[in-house]
């Protein structure tokens, strides 16, 4: 109700405001000044999840979300879209439909955060003050750091599952494959879902086998990393698969240039500075370099690397006690995934509810994260692990094995859990089920 009054006030000043009563939340484009008890920056996985939880904790009228995008995407399904197993349209829904009802949506981009004055400034000039701030701005893709991109995507034979603009180009390149190298890359930066760059390789291999073209394909995974996957238990299984399916893995190779007119990709050897290698491709899947949100990086909230500087147990900011964070924008030392967002949301909810009562946070985030490593059109290895890189598996079976059941989880169960559980603030990760399945032992 309070935000409704503020909106009315904006309207009377003649500033353009759109209120979608049928969407049950209020939204504004521009209003010179606003104040909200709880301000959430970013309306992606972490932002919508936390706004739903904060609505429950302090009432819808006290919560606002700053998010410029009209569409909200379930990014994990892009792996299957790039391989033609799902439609791109199935990955997105209007942001209005996932915004919790009654929560105030500021439809603009955050431009500046000043935690010393509890102020956020948006692109349209609105100044928003807050009592509490949750930063959920995700990370930044940097296609432009590869010479020849992003304009190279205008040519065929090249795609990337990492954005809605390029994911269908992956599927097109795969379908058009005739003969030659199919090349998959992993950049020399932190990434979100570190398994995704190789999942599309396994799917492409499966597709080329299914269509009788595998013998004409040389499939290679050129990764900047010195390992195939960070957690040994799952890496061992993946090495077995690449050997069995004749997939070439080249470690410490970093994509620096694409020459789409010649269908050439240029890699630097990270172990031998100055040494480069040109690879001709018939299909190229690019995982772009990634980095921190530029807004976080340019604020006092960032650590030296530009990531949101959080206490890794409680998700409270290390210097500003009324600031919290979740997801890909943070410096939490775990793999950046939606599954991590789910587990973090339960801890952050608890931390904030305790602080509101002047009590100390008592729930600790163990770094839980998960990566369903899709290895074909009907198998998945479900990697789950914690801050220490120790497997933290939900099911009482060996999850390093390829399983049909896990594919079904990835393709059918998880999207449902995302839209109807996580985004409504009702899913805090599989911790309680893990305890149950392991008879309280994990
Ligand atoms: C191809 C692919 C496959 C993946 N597979 C999996 C998987 O299998 N399992 C899994 O758990 N995770 C997976 N992920 C990762 C998962 O999608 C992310 O980790 C998760 O979405 C992170 O949530 P977030 O809220 O931190 O960031 P996001 O969901 O990216 O949200 C960030 C939001 O901030 C907004 N924003 C950015 N800048 C501004 C600004 N200046 N002002 C206002 N708003 C802004 C953006 O518009 C966006 O809505 C995958 C991701 C990709 C791309």
From TrEMBL:
Cofactor field: FAD
Source taxonomy: Eukaryota, Metazoa, Chordata, Craniata, Vertebrata
GO function terms (MF aspect): FAD binding; glutathione-dependent sulfide quinone oxidoreductase activity; quinone binding; sulfide:quinone oxidoreductase activity
Main location: mitochondrion
Family: Belongs to the SQRD family.
Reaction catalysed by this enzyme: ubiquinone-10 + hydrogen sulfide + glutathione + H(+) = S-sulfanylglutathione + ubiquinol-10; ubiquinone-10 + hydrogen sulfide + sulfite + 2 H(+) = ubiquinol-10 + thiosulfate; a quinone + hydrogen sulfide + glutathione + H(+) = S-sulfanylglutathione + a quinol
EC number per UniProt: 1.8.5.8
Protein's job: Catalyzes the oxidation of hydrogen sulfide with the help of a quinone, such as ubiquinone-10, giving rise to thiosulfate and ultimately to sulfane (molecular sulfur) atoms. Requires an additional electron acceptor; can use sulfite, sulfide or cyanide (in vitro). It is believed the in vivo electron acceptor is glutathione.
Residues of the FAD/NAD(P)-binding domain: 37-155
Keywords, sorted A to Z: FAD, Flavoprotein, Mitochondrion, Oxidoreductase, Quinone, Transit peptide
The species this protein was found in: Betta splendens (Siamese fighting fish)
GO term, biological process aspect, one: sulfide oxidation, using sulfide:quinone oxidoreductase
GO-annotated cellular components: mitochondrion
This protein's name: Sulfide:quinone oxidoreductase, mitochondrial
Superkingdom: Eukaryota
Subcellular location per the Swiss-Prot or TrEMBL entry: Mitochondrion
